[in-house]
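All the exercises in this workshop are built on plain-text protein records. The record below serves as our worked example for the rest of this section.
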Amino acid sequence: MMIPVEEIGHIKHLLTDSRQLGAEPEVTLFFALRTAKNDGANYISELYEKGVRTFVVHEDGTNWADTYPEAKFFCVPDTLAALQELAAWKRAQYPNAQVIGITGSNGKTVVKEWLYELLKEDYKITRSPKSYNSQIGVPLSVWQMNEETELAIFEAGISQPGEMERLEKIIRPTIGVITYIGHEHDENFRSLEEKRAEKMKLFARCPVVIEDKMHQNARTCALVMRQLGYDEEVIQERLLRKTHETVMQVNLSALADNVRYFKGLLKPETKLTCMVKAFAYGTGSVEIAQCLQEHGADYLAVAVCDEGVELRRAGISLPIIIMDPETPALERIIENNLEPNIYSFQSLENFLAAAEKAGVEHHPIHIKIDSGMHRLGFEWADMEALAARLKNQKAVRVKSVFSHLCVADEPQWDAFTKEQIDLFSRCADYLRSQLDYPVMKHILNSAGIERFTEYQFDMCRLGIGLYGFSFAGAKLRNVCTLKSTLLSVKTVKAGESIGYGRHTWLHEDRQIGVIPIGYADGFDRKFGNGGGEVLVRGKRCPVMGNVCMDLCMIDVTGTDAQPGDEATIFGDNLPIEELANKLDTITYEILTGVSRRVKRVYFYE
């Protein structure tokens, strides 16, 4: 063993990302991993100050003990290999635990979460957090096993040959599960067959391997439950309970790819603010913010103070702009190191009073300019008085001056957009000339980044583009898929009506399915009576009758659909834009309208 286990008996937590340090630094072991872009050793000083006293570092001749005399350092040839070896040792301590190992291209996280919900009544379960299925994520997951673990469920993902053998030694599954294997990460494999063969190496010593040929979540879980000895009545009862769920799947790998696309349009020195207001456009603020923090965002922006506080409590350390700061929340904004948008003399005076009361100096603020949208912001006529007031105080410091383009996505208004940019630049440049410290300026939104890249200035703001919507025809990746499940399928005879109000009548016998999504979940009533469609088994099925509060009916005639089948509300093959067009609205409204009672499931490919 590279790390003598007898010397780390006190360790409870393994850490590879300094930003995720928990409340028990004294029992945390930090692995200073090296990557192509970073070296974990750069964060040892910060972690030492916060109370971490046990580290694993690369053997490079550094005498760490002289600098950090109270700490214990294990110097190893390869910190990642040491992490994986330690996790494999931990797994070996529990030879009697059932361990389910899941691999595939898509669906690993969803199947893992389904199994957890189906089995938690009967087992004390340890499972992978979120989508921890990588060379780093798997050992962090397996380390969570303990004396109480009766069943463990771990994901394993690979992006190139040679990786799965290392994960197999760590997980050592007793039951293997294969989800759909597709073309994700094809670039590192010669063929789909080679990719499948590499993934199958997870089961080199596994006595049982389960794969539903249709890759249906419910059927896969039923096969696992049968293997564990459940009788059919229990399986059906729990699956029926489970399949009542409607979920929104959020692909964090696609989100990161979209961020990379927009960053690729900008100069390396241009900063990027990512908008996570309104529950991150309906996708889940904390999880999206964590992903963005890991993939290159420089700033985050939310609407109100509560959203910012939620992110701080979740460990988000990036600067956070509060776009609509409420006067009663100014004290909490200061306490949580949040940065308010100041858009009027009244909002400035309110915040100055709050900052002076709190005894702070140079608290960061952002000045909003009204360049033509006429919503919030200072005007050109305010600049002289604004500059004078900002110079005559010490409580705040302007981090940026910004404005908002209102028609950057509409080419017919390009001349007006340039007028906005000119007016904004005049205001921003005047303010910057009057202040004796650097101030950033930014005006471009998602559409502006693509269509007016030359005006990127010091920073840009990325919102709806995060989720795969381009204003220049770029092939961005879909991030969100809203799915439900067929509860029942029945034959309804010709001459009968469907739903409340009897607005849909049948002229021939039809197969009518019911799915647990309604207007309380964000599925608009205008989709009723043929106004909308959902996908079942690859076929479009029209909505029949009025949409109910919690349910709706669809025509599945000719699909051979069965209860338990998936029904896609929007996703790769049924774009959100199509739903928005049918309602004569915008994609933002469809996304943000998905109710919070709809469970969000996050995964990395």
Notes: Residues 414-434 form the longest helix (21 residues). The CA atoms of residues 361 and 395 lie 4 Å apart. The longest strand covers residues 396-402. The mean pLDDT is 94.
